[in-house]
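Backbone shape codes:
===
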Amino acid sequence: MAKERKDKHFVKKPVYRGGMKALRTFITQHLQYPEEALKAKVEGTVSLRYSIDHLGKVTKVDIIKGLGHGCDEEAARLVRLLRFEVAKTYKVRVLFHKNLQIHFRLPTEQPKPSPIQYNYISSSEQPPTDNSSSSDSDSDSGSYHYQIEW
């Protein structure tokens, strides 16, 4: 009978449900570019350090490198919205620290494509067939010819 193996790590780190890809998706969906930063056309990265308590809530947010113009406050607001899953730590309350970078990129306006007009001309008349080639006349019989003009 084999002995039950104990886990190597007594304290497990908190994880965001869905992993880093889900975390990035959450940030991009909830990021609101500050008006002041839009007017000043500020782009860049805000580096943050935040603390996660034993319940998985973000308790403290420190800005390591900021941009100003409201971007720092928006990044801190986003981090405070995050909720993590913390494994049982046998009644030990551990405070975890993590770093995160939030990128602020100006939204690009894509030019609207100019409308393309299609003229659809349908004719049920068959073009004159040349009797010398019988293979062409077989393929044209009973078919329609369409012409699209730009």
